[in-house]
Design a protein that fits this description.
The protein is of the alpha+beta class. It has a domain at about 45-60 and about 85-200: 2-Layer Sandwich (60s Ribosomal Protein L30, Chain: A), CATH 3.30.1330.60. It has six helices and four strands. The protein has helices spanning about 5-10, 15-20, 30-40, 50-60, 105-115, 135-155, and strands spanning about 85-90, 120-130, 165-170, 190-195. It has a four-stranded mixed beta sheet with strand order 1-4-2-3, sandwiched between helices. Strand 2 (about 120-130), helix 6 (about 135-155) and strand 3 form a beta-alpha-beta unit. The longest helix is centred in the middle third of the chain and has 21 residues, at about 135-155. It is globular, with a radius of gyration of 25 Å. About 25% of the residues are buried.
């Protein structure tokens, strides 16, 4: 037995180290965690998604000499920060929108949360991000494709109504961890509560119809 291992055994620490989870391990998110984060809807966002997609592409193609570094760029859609949101670690194959098998359980928990009675009345944004490090325009396109991929899995595999899911990719134009522009936190996916499902709005009462008086027959 090597001296270092023998020393740990003598101190009674070897078993504890063997049983301890890795330092980087994170507690798996649960359905209830997702519900708790998203069930705080107050008002819909005024963000125009088609216009925002265009803005992301245009800004990601910027080549100006005075362009600030990633950590100093202002968020492209700051109003999104007002929405209830949860950040999730979804693993993709490198530089692709292909979800790795290890993340399907997390996507299943997203689906379970979105079909819970407390969240059924709402629509949700699926927001893709990419950490800084490559070409900005490629990051914008990849983040949109990844958001689309999550939506497709939720719709096709877990049967979530398509109209409730609104995908948007922000690339590296709205970093989740600006202090570490190429850190892994910036590749997280966000789910946000965006608006109420139209069918849940109370219907206006139908106007009262006056009863017709019987027509008297002439004799």
């Amino acid at each position: 037995m090597r001296p270092f291992v023998r020393r740990l055994r003598d101190l009674g620490l070897l078993g504890a180290l063997l049983l301890a989870p890795p330092a980087h391990a994170q507690t798996a998110v649960t359905r209830d965690d997702i519900i708790a984060k998203l069930n705080h809807y107050e008002a819909p966002t005024d963000v125009d998604l088609p216009a925002l997609r265009q803005q992301v592409l245009e800004r990601s193609r910027s080549r100006g000499k005075n362009e600030p570094p990633p950590q100093k760029r202002p968020p492209i859609a700051p109003d999104l920060d007002k929405l209830p949101a949860i950040n999730l670690d979804i693993k993709f194959d490198v530089d692709t929108p292909i979800v790795l098998p290890e993340s399907y359980q997390t996507i299943g928990r997203i689906a379970d949360a979105l079909t819970h009675s407390s969240l059924l009345p709402y629509n949700f944004l699926i927001v893709g991000h990419v950490e800084s490090g490559g070409r900005r325009d490629n990051a914008a396109l990849l983040s949109q494709r990844r958001a689309d991929a999550i939506r497709d899995i939720l719709v096709n595999t877990f049967k979530i109504a398509p109209k409730r899911l609104l995908p948007i990719g922000l690339g590296e134009e709205q970093l989740l961890d600006p202090a570490r522009a190429n850190g892994p936190a910036n590749a997280q996916l966000q789910i946000m509560t965006a608006s109420k499902v139209a069918d849940t709005e109370p219907a206006a009462p139908a106007p009262a119809v006056a009863a017709k008086k019987p027509v008297k027959k002439k004799h």
